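Gmad2 immunoglobulin-like domain-containing protein
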Amino acid sequence: MRRLISPLAALLLLAAGCAPPRTGTLGPAPAGPSPTTATAAPTGPPPAPTPSPSRTPTAPATTGTPTTAAPTEPDGTLTVQLWFAWDGKLVPTRRALPATVATSRLALTELAAGPSLAETATGLTTLVPAGTQVTRIAGGVATLAPPAGFDAGGAATARLRRAQVVWTLTQFPTVRRVAFAPADTATGRDDYADLLPPIVVTAPAIGDRVGSPVTVTGTADVYEATVSARVLDAAGQEIGTAFTTASCGSGCRGGYRLNVRYRRPAAGPGTIEVYEVSARDGSRINVVRIPVDLAAGR
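Tokens:
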């Protein structure tokens, strides 16, 4: 069945004006919120349909903190992407925070504070401790002074912790690599690319209110680059489905974007599922589930 739909997927890609397959990308740094504020949920069973309230962030002090440029929204907020841990992998979420020039400190403070209650319910967690600070940004390299015990927990845990920091800080245009004092070699996103799950979802966000069609974006490294998505109502019934091809796949990571139309007579809780169809048996694999608030759709 996969071979029958692949030509259709290619036609849909051309119709959408997407770029042809190319060497895989790890995904661009965020440049502000998408039509649905972007985030991702990990593979696993969805949490309760109504997510818990998010933690209210507090902007940190800015005195003496290295700064990085980041876009500020008209309402005076700053959209920051945070990379949390789930089952040994990296998954992104976003925060709309009070604007500050000390964006690196803001991002690390939020990263250490951890996921919101709704995000925690999906299994997201953070390994980054409070007190992790950037001491210098020069030549595209951010140098950190990690607190005592930063590398505790074994090599795999320490590497995932560092990956959280690197992927979070390198969203800013002035940071391309991160060095951990006192003498570590600077590393970038490519050095931790193996910690990404097969499918990363950057929009919509956990708890977002979405309408039909709902736009789903992210990156993927899946068979024949084919990414599928469906909308489920509160009872788990499928009310909309679509698929597309990422810009690269089957051994390389590419970006994807697709719109999923659904029918629903009234607003209410639901779930967006993004997944790969198994080439072996046609089952859904590498599933990412995002609980959302669905508007009525026709």
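The domain at 1-43+197-298 is CATH 2.60.40.2550 (Immunoglobulin-like).
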